[in-house]
TrEMBL record, chain A:
Stretches the record annotates as Disordered: 97-118
SUPFAM superfamilies the UniProt entry points to: vWA-like
Coiled coil: none
Protein name: VWA domain-containing protein
Pfam families referenced in this protein's UniProt entry, alphabetically: VWA_CoxE
From TrEMBL, chain B:
Biological source species: Phytoactinopolyspora halotolerans
Pfam families given in the database record: AAA_5
SUPFAM superfamilies for this protein: P-loop containing nucleoside triphosphate hydrolases
PANTHER family linked to this entry: MAGNESIUM-CHELATASE SUBUNIT CHLD, MOXR FAMILY PROTEIN
Protein's UniProt name: MoxR family ATPase
Gene3D superfamilies the record matches: P-loop containing nucleotide triphosphate hydrolases
Residues of the AAA+ ATPase domain: 50-220
Ranges where the record places region Disordered: 1-20
Amino acid sequence: MNAGPEHAVEPVVEFAGRLRASGASVPPTRVHMMLRALAELGADSLSAVYWSGRLTLCASPDDIERYDQVFSAYFGAGQGRPRPRVQVAPAYRMVAAPADGQPETGAKNDGPPPEKLATASRHEVLRNRDVTELTAAERAEVNHYLSALVIAVPERITRRMRAAPGGTIDARRTIRAMMRRGGEPVEVLRHRKSRRTRRLVFLIDVSGSMAPYADTVLRFAHAACRARPGTEVFTVGTRLTRLTRELRGRGAAAAIAKASQAIPDWSGGTRLGPEVKEFLDRWGQRGVARGAVVVLASDGWEQGDPTLLGEQMARLRRLARRVVWVNPHRGHDGYAPRTGGMRAALPHIDDLVAGHSLGAMEDLAILLTTTTSCTPWPGTHRLQDATEAVSDA
Amino acid sequence: MTEIRDRSDASGPPTDGVVAGPEELARRLDAAGYLADDGLATAAFLALRMRRPLFIEGEAGVGKTSLAHALSAALSAPLIRLQCYEGVDAAQALYDWDFPRQLLHLRAAEAAGVSDVDRLEHELYDRRFLVARPLLRALEEVPCVLLIDEIDRADDEFEAFLLEVLSDFTISIPEVGTVRAETPPTVVVTSNRTREVHDALKRRCLYHWLDHPTFEREIAVITRRLPEVSERLASDVARVVERMRSADLLKPPGLAESIDWAAALAALGARELDADLASRTLGAVLKYQEDTERIRAEIGEMVVETAG
């Protein structure tokens, strides 16, 4: 790279191509910016090339990690440069489930008897069936209902004021109105605090044991993303993946397909504790979980140490407005939260709800519209039942 | 690059004229009490030269905001700060009309028996009744350093609006006309990354991720900022803070916290760090009860280990 900047065009464009191939989004305007930066710095040192690219082609710490890799592969060693800190997942160990820790499959609900099916509406029939027991056609129908689900998102009061017929006096608007009438106080205008939607955050377990249900929850999350663009979606399993971008699209099928591609650990193991921790470290504590309604969908099978999960759930509970745990097995008869992870998390969640059927997801949609955690709702006493079941056991 | 020359000539910065390169900018920042590494100096230099806003992201307390302060000192340009928060809107960022004064003017005109309504109305929307907020002020007071702090706290709508202003550096006020900056001000945008800022805005800017400083740099910054702190104490603090950062805390201490801690220790007359002093002043460096408890149990060990 001893030549002037004009000779840098070709390698820079090629380098940008490599970066794109590695999955980064590099629009041509950014490449142009890199060339300009390079011209300013003079392309005579590797460091100048490194920084002109890093400052213009990257837009997040994750990008920098990838940039460093591609840079050192393309331009030779990019050694000794400051890199963003990379979270290293702590080693985990298998922990024996508690003594009575059989898989949480209560007696399976076989659905209503056939003669009843004939009279109930199609929707009603599908509503209460476990999604894993559906045929492909029924599944498609359920997916259709899911995508059409109206998810009213919870609200909170902001400090911003909005004009309103009642409320406190809005001095500014009143004076403005007075000025329009030559300074005569004709009408008193009022305003009150406006309301904004609370953020919804989904953490979806995509491990092997959750695989049959994860798709349903993902579709639900997609419907929520459309209802409120600020919604954040993450999957957990053996690693944390942010799916918010992938689920932004309008069509459910396309968005789900994109999301599935982005998840590297479908049907893998579960390390809920470390994953929830990583979520809180990287996103939650910084603001994503603050004051939000967090929906965690998992069966509570934890391969790691349940104590860590308990600690992290307590931390999540302190940050979030409300923590809702969706457990598909919750919908089965005779369910009791017996797995280590579920028992560790139980004291720190507001609601434990089912997520095994269309009906359960519809109930969840209703639950999410209530803002305060103290509001009595069917879901809350169901949680108490479950807690009692544990203490009885 | 005349605007840089003008700016620096204004009141005699340590070196002459133009900012020739990242090294020189680093020297000037140093003179202003800010130690910038290669990457940051390059980023700031390019922001000046390419007239692009500099978007700085990083953990809380790594020196994002202080960079803007130092840049303003290094360039001898005033600093104009826009602190973002949830619900910040155009009236707080751009301009607002001074309604009470307008009303007074109206009443006074009435009392004086002014009958020329058109003229009166024209007077009411005069520049003197306009309250300039940070963005408008920045355009009017070029050369200056505009700091848009904690953009991640503002709403998405505000981001879109900011994008518009930062793209062409013009603000149009229907009653007055368009305000345009011939040369754009130096803009520093900071984010703690509590949420992802929209790509379109980042694309307008040079992006820099500011990491925790290296051990040597941290000592240098502490002694630079706090001349009363002994070299020994600074290195003790830097070493223990480095250990804390790798201890997986809820809020790992940033550079701002190590400076606070060193200042607290110096205020107690410490020349070097010992377990008792450290334990008594932990509140200056750790901001979560859980973290304080954990570290308090290990602090003796940390201090001894690092002293060896």
